[in-house]
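so my prof wants the structure for this chain in the tokens format not the other one, which i didnt know existed until like an hour ago. anyway here's the sequence
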Amino acid sequence: MNKKKLSKEVTNGPGKVSKALGIHFSHSGLSLSGDKIWLEDKGIKIAKNEIKITKRIGIDYAGDDVKLPYRFILKSIPGLF
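here's what i got, hopefully its the right format
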């Protein structure tokens, strides 16, 4: 994507975020504590009132799972949503 600035075009869906981070379906099943893809705790704290939870989109096929609260947005980043 070659973006220098965070924008809605890179963050408005899990596929776009994965692409921006270089995550491909071939990474499925990798440990998140490995050396290819990992989760890091940088000690950043975000207050609950700064997180907006919205309905999932584009997964009408998912039945009741479409209602699960798995879409989170930081309110403090203007213009993303």
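also thought this was worth mentioning. Residues 44-81 form one domain.
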